[in-house]
């Protein structure tokens, strides 16, 4: 198992407020990226249909339903 000793991990955060797909340009320079999506209305984890690591700086997310209300928070962490 790999041990992370970095005091600072690179990250990117954005909001998803409409539509069933979102292209996130994170500029983290890696396809080894952890993606987490949280509903800002109730702080529940959102599971989308497709997470495509388009290239080392871009992730494309596709969901069966669009976010509502305050939308979703998309967080990416470079591993």
Q: How would you describe this structure to a colleague?
A:
With 79 residues, the chain is an all-beta fold. 0% of the residues lie in helices and 46% in strands. It is built from no helices and six strands. The chain has strands at residues 11-16, 21-25, 33-39, 50-55, 58-62, 72-78. It has a three-stranded antiparallel sheet, with no helix packed on it. It has a three-stranded antiparallel sheet with strand order 2-5-4, with no helix packed on it. The radius of gyration is 13 Å and the shape is globular. The two termini are 13 Å apart.
Mean pLDDT level: 93
- How much strand content do the residues show? over 45%
Distance between the termini: 13 Å
Order of H and E elements: EEEEEE
The outline comes out as globular
Structural class: mainly beta
Question: If you compute it from the alpha carbons, what radius of gyration comes out, rounded to the nearest whole angstrom?
Answer: 13 Å
Q: Work out the helix count.
A: 0
List keywords for this structure.
about 80 residues, mainly beta, 3-stranded antiparallel sheet, about 0% helix
In a few lines, what is going on in this structure?
This protein is an all-beta fold. The protein has strands at 11-16, 21-25, 33-39, 50-55, 58-62, 72-78. The protein has a three-stranded antiparallel β-sheet, with no helix packed on it. Strands 2-5-4 form a three-stranded antiparallel β-sheet, with no helix packed on it.
Write the layout of secondary structure elements.
Layout: E1 11-16, E2 21-25, E3 33-39, E4 50-55, E5 58-62, E6 72-78
